[in-house]
Amino acid sequence: MVQLGYTLSSEEFRPNEIVAHARLAEETGFSFAGISDHFHPWVDAQKHSPFIWATLGGIAQSTERLEVLTGVTCPLIRIHPAIIAQAAATVADMLPGRFILGLGTGEYLNEHVTGAHWPPISKRQEMLVEAIGIMRELWQGNYTTHYGQHYTVENARIYTLPESLPPIYVAAAGPESAELAGKHSDGLINTAPTPDVVEAYTAAGGDPSRVIGQLTVCWGKDKDAAVQTALETWPIAALTGQLTQELALPIYFEAATELVTAEKIEQKVACGPDPEQLLKKIKEYTDAGFTHVYLHQIGPDQEGFLDFAKRELLPHAASIG
To answer: Is the pLDDT of residue 55 over 90?
Structure first.
């Protein structure tokens, strides 16, 4: 049985709207939600990008059962891992037993804002391993001093710790990062149903019961209108390779997606009102070894999608996989 979740899209909504969506997702019956952690949206049409560590406090107060995953936080450049360790400890205390810290190597779009050097992926992977070690050490509640290859921590102690420390999941698009996730984290996150990534993760010692995938959709009663919404709001769905990690500004992503067509979006995003199409896409993830799938509904009609999910998707979750 696959666990179905819901995406809280920080790029498309104001923080109070995101909090309301979290409450509605819980009421709908989703077991978990992932919240994106950005400084910038991908393109200006998305309009927003609030500081999620404030938004998470609102979610903690408005929900009772919903598990929440950061999907994903980069603890490398824009924010020092010691600060992320404190932020995550606080949120885990506010969401007892229902917070997962999802981490990744980031995108230039968000990490360049402090003027720091943007290193290649191999260096960022090294930085992520060191950052995870720092956070786990700080979560022991002792004074911590660390002089590492990439980070310095001097006499730091986190006083407010949750009764249950949050698990750390790592996002991986390829086998090398998946191996890192298997060795250094508690779970795997990916945005495509790639069995080789899951296999690399489990081969490195990763827990096969903690594999989360994100599926981007654009539900709507009219399929053509849904495709157009996805094209205007989320054209980056059609971008491939490393490009999404290397562009600095939303205007650059807009330039990169000028040639994206409705046909290309339809190939990448499940659009329209057909539940069978979405259930088929979800099964692609379970067939690849994913145990959890969280759905990202593009566009303003979140309430309509949640109603659709309650009627047409969640009742079938037990039969998928």
So the answer is: yes
Bridge-based pairing state of the strands 211-218 and 292-297: parallel
CA contacts within 13 A on the Cβ side of 289? 20
Collect all residues with Cβ–Cβ distance below 8 Å to 262 and sequence separation of at least 6.
227, 228, 231
pTM of structure: 0.98
CA 159/CA 93 separation, integer angstroms: 12
Contacts of 152 (CB under 8 A, 6+ apart): 146
Average pLDDT over residues 84-98: 98
Degrees to nearest 5, angle at CA 257 with 252 and 261: 170
CA-wise closest residue to 218 among 127, 128, 300? 300
E strands, the chain, in order: 3-8, 32-35, 67-70, 99-103, 144-147, 152-156, 168-171, 187-190, 211-218, 270-271, 292-297
Q: Which residues have CB under 8 Å from 259's CB, separation 6+?
A: none
107 is an active site residue: yes
Task: Provide the CA 3 distance to its chain's centre, in angstroms.
Answer: 16
Could you say which of 67, 107, 111, 130 is catalytic? 107
Burial of 239 (0-12, 13-18, 19+ CB in 10 A): middle
pLDDT exceeds 80 at position 321: no
Q: 284-317 pLDDT, tens per residue?
A: 999 999 999 999 999 999 999 999 999 999 999 8
* Structure-token pair, residue 199: 């296999």
* Residue pair 32/292 in contact by the 8 Å Cβ criterion: yes
Q: How many CB atoms lie within 10 A of CB 186?
A: 15
Question: Which residue of the set 12, 21, 26, 38 is catalytic?
Answer: 38
176 as an active site residue: the answer is no
Token pair of 81 as six digits: 């891992």
Tokens read off for 158: 């986190």
Per-residue three-class SS string for 81-143 = HHHHHHHHHHHHHHCCCCEEEEECCCCHHHHHHHCCCCCCHHHHHHHHHHHHHHHHHHCCCCC
